[in-house]
C-alpha cells in the first residue's frame, strides 16, 4: 500500500502535533525525525519529577508497583530498574505473522511523539536513542497478534521497546532480519538501560492502531477519488446519463461528500462523444439508470464524509499524550485511562463498513457491463467471440469473492471485549484488530476498483467508432502502458489485473484523469 511520496524531508516532534502527512512521510518514505529543542528541555524537566520519586517509599504506579492486577505489589528500591526491563521482556509476547514495516515505523514515530511531549518522565537519552533507531531504518519485528487495544498496543510496542534495549529481532534498513545487537552495532547505536518508569512509558499508547488509521485515511482519500473515476467511466461505457450528477440536484441534499463526488464524475464525463451520442431524449428511451450508476456519488460521498470524521478523530489523537501514569504540566504524577483505544477503534470499524460498501457498488457496475441483457449492446462478458472466449467473466468472480470478504471484514471489532489481567483490565477496545482488518479491506478495495477500471476500459473501447471523453481516454492509456485492457481474444488475465491494481495504488489512475480534468476532489 504505497503512495506518491509527500514533500516532507524531516518531521519534527515535540512542537506542533503531527499530521497524517507526517505519519505517511516517515512510515512509507523514510523521512527523518528530529526532536524540537524545547521538547528536549521539557523532557529533562519532567524526568526530574520521576527521579524524585525513584527512592520514595510511597507507592507510585509503574515506578514502585507491579502492573495491571499486580499493581498491589510494592517493589523495593533496588529492584525498580529490573521492574522496567522485566515489564518489556514479558510483554513482548506477540504471535503470528510479521507486521508490515510501514506499520511499525508509524507506531515508532507516534510513540516518539508522546515521549517528546515531556509528559512521560522518560530520560532524554532514551528518547534520542529511539529516534536514532528509527532514522537508521532499524525496524523491530512486531507480530500480528498481541494487542487488545487497551493499556495501549502493549505487545507491539513492547517488541519495539525490547529492540531499544538491544534485545530481540529487527530488520535493518535493507530489510534483512538480524539480532538487534548486531543491527545496533552496525549503526553505531548503544542500547538503552531502562530506568524507573521508562519501560511503562515505552509501551502504553494507542500508537499502533493510530498509525494504521493515519495510513488508511491517506489510502482511502486516494481510493474514493479513484472510485469516482471508475464510476464515471462505467456510466459512460454503459450509455448512462450524467444529468443526475448536476450540481443543483446535489445541492438539494447538502451532504458535502456527495457534492464532491458528483463534481468529479461530471468532470470525468465532460466532452465525451459516447455520452453525446445518446443525449437526445427522443433517441434515448431509458428514463433512469440503475442505482449503482445513478447513486454512485451518494455512496462515495458517504465514504468521504466518514473519512472527514475519521480524520478529525485522528487529529485529536495525534495531538494527544498517552501514558499511564502521566506527568502533568504542574508536576503531578497521575493515573488515567487515556490509553483506552475506543475512540480510534470506532472510526477504524466505521471505515471498514464504508470500504466494503464502496467495493460492493463497484462490483455491481462491473457485473452490469458483463451482462448482455443490461450492458446496452455490448457482447456478453465483453468477450471477443462469446462461447469460445469468456472475456472478463472470472474477473467479476474475483471481485465478488473480495466483496464477500470485505463484508466479513466490516463486522466491528470494537464491539468485542475479552477481560484480561485477572479482571483488572475488564473492558478493552480491540482497536488493533480493527486496524488490522481495515488494512486488509483497503487492499481488497484497491483490487476491486482495478477490475472495474479494466472492465470499463474494455467496454468503452468496444463502443468504437465512438470515442470516450478525454479523461477516460487518459486513464485507458495509462492502464495500457502497464498491461493490456484492449478487447480481443482471451489471454492470461491475472497480470493485467495486477498491473491495474498497481496503478491504482501508486496514484497513476488519478493523475492520468487529472491531466484532462484538472484537480479532482
CATH homologous superfamily label of the largest domain? Fumarase/aspartase (Central domain)
Task: Please give the share of residues in helix.
Answer: 40-55%
**What is the CATH architecture assignment of the largest domain?**
Up-down Bundle
> Strand sequence of the main sheet, in spatial order?
4-6-7
Q: Please tell me the overall pLDDT.
A: 93
Reading off the top of the CATH hierarchy, the class of the largest domain is best stated as: Mainly Alpha
Report what the structure shows.
Helix content is 55%, strand content 5%. The chain has 20 helices and 9 strands. It has helices at 20-29, 37-53, 80-91, 101-115, 124-135, 154-164, 180-187, 198-203, 207-237, 247-251, 256-269, 273-276, 291-294, 296-318, 342-370, 393-409, 431-461, 470-482, 494-505, 508-517, and strands at 10-13, 32-35, 95-98, 139-140, 143-145, 169-171, 177-179, 326-327, 333-334. α15 (342-370) packs antiparallel against α16 (393-409). The longest helix is centred in the middle third of the chain and has 31 residues, at 207-237. The chain is elongated and about 90 Å long. The mean pLDDT is 93. It catalyses: L-histidine = trans-urocanate + NH4(+). InterPro entries: Aromatic_Lyase, Fumarase/histidase_N, HutH, L-Aspartase-like, Phe/His_NH3-lyase_AS. It is found in: Cytoplasm.
Amino acid at each position: 500500500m504505497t503512495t506518491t511520496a509527500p514533500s516532507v524531508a524531516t518531521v519534527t516532534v515535540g512542537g506542533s502535533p503531527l499530521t497524517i502527512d507526517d505519519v505517511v512521510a516517515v512510515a512509507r518514505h523514510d523521512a527523518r525525525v528530529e526532536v524540537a529543542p524545547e521538547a528536549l528541555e521539557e523532557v529533562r524537566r519532567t524526568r526530574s519529577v520521576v527521579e524524585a520519586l525513584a527512592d520514595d517509599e510511597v507507592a507510585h504506579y509503574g515506578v514502585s508497583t507491579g502492573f495491571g492486577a499486580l499493581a498491589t505489589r510494592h517493589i523495593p528500591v533496588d529492584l525498580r530498574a529490573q521492574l522496567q526491563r522485566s515489564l518489556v521482556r514479558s510483554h513482548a509476547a506477540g504471535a503470528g505473522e510479521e507486521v508490515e514495516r510501514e506499520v511499525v515505523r508509524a507506531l515508532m514515530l507516534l510513540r516518539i511523539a508522546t515521549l517528546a511531549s515531556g509528559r512521560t518522565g522518560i530520560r532524554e537519552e532514551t528518547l534520542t536513542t529511539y529516534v536514532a533507531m528509527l532514522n537508521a531504518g532499524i525496524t523491530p519485528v512486531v507480530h500480528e497478534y498481541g494487542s487488545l487495544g487497551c493499556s495501549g498496543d502493549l505487545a507491539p510496542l513492547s517488541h519495539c521497546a525490547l529492540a531499544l534495549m538491544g534485545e530481540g529481532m529487527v530488520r535493518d534498513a535493507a530489510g534483512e532480519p538480524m539480532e538487534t545487537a548486531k543491527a545496533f552495532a552496525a549503526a553505531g547505536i548503544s542500547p538503552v538501560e531502562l530506568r524507573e518508569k521508562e519501560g511503562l512509558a515505552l509501551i502504553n499508547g494507542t500508537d499502533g492502531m493510530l498509525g494504521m488509521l493515519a495510513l488508511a485515511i491517506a489510502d482511502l482519500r486516494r481510493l474514493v477519488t479513484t472510485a469516482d473515476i471508475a464510476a464515471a467511466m462505467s456510466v459512460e461505457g454503459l450509455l448512462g446519463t450524467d444529468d443526475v450528477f448536476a450540481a443543483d440536484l446535489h445541492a438539494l441534499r447538502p451532504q458535502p461528500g456527495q457534492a464532491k463526488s458528483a463534481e468529479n464524475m461530471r468532470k470525468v464525463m465532460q466532452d465525451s462523444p459516447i455520452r453525446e451520442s445518446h443525449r437526445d431524449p427522443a433517441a434515448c428511451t431509458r428514463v433512469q439508470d440503475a442505482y449503482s450508476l445513478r447513486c454512485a456519488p451518494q455512496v462515495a460521498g458517504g465514504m468521504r464524509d466518514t473519512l472527514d470524521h475519521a480524520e478529525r478523530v485522528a487529529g485529536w489523537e495525534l495531538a494527544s499524550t498517552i501514558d499511564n501514569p502521566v506527568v502533568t504540566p504542574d508536576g503531578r504524577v497521575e493515573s488515567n485511562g487515556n490509553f483506552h483505544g475506543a475512540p480510534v477503534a470506532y472510526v477504524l470499524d466505521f471505515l471498514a463498513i464504508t470500504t466494503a460498501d464502496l467495493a460492493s457498488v463497484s462490483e455491481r457496475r462491473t457485473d452490469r457491463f458483463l451482462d448482455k441483457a443490461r450492458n446496452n449492446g455490448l457482447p456478453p462478458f465483453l468477450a471477443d467471440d462469446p462461447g469460445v472466449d469468456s472475456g472478463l467473466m472470472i474477473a467479476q468472480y474475483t471481485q465478488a469473492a473480495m466483496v464477500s470478504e470485505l463484508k466479513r471484514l466490516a463486522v466491528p471489532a470494537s464491539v468485542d471485549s475479552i477481560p484480561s489481567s485477572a479482571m483488572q483490565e475488564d473492558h478493552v477496545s480491540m482497536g488493533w484488530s480493527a486496524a488490522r482488518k481495515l488494512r486488509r479491506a483497503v487492499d481488497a478495495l484497491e483490487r476491486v476498483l482495478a477490475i472495474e477500471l479494466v472492465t470499463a476500459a474494455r467496454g468503452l473501447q468496444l463502443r468504437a467508432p465512438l470515442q470516450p471523453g478525454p479523461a477516460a481516454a487518459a486513464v485507458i492509456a495509462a492502464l495500457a502502458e502497464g498491461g493490456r485492457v484492449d478487447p480481443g481474444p482471451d489471454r492470461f488475465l491475472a497480470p493485467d489485473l495486477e498491473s491495474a491494481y498497481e496503478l491504482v495504488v501508486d496514484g497513476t489512475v488519478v493523475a492520468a484523469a487529472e491531466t484532462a480534468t484538472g484537480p479532482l476532489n
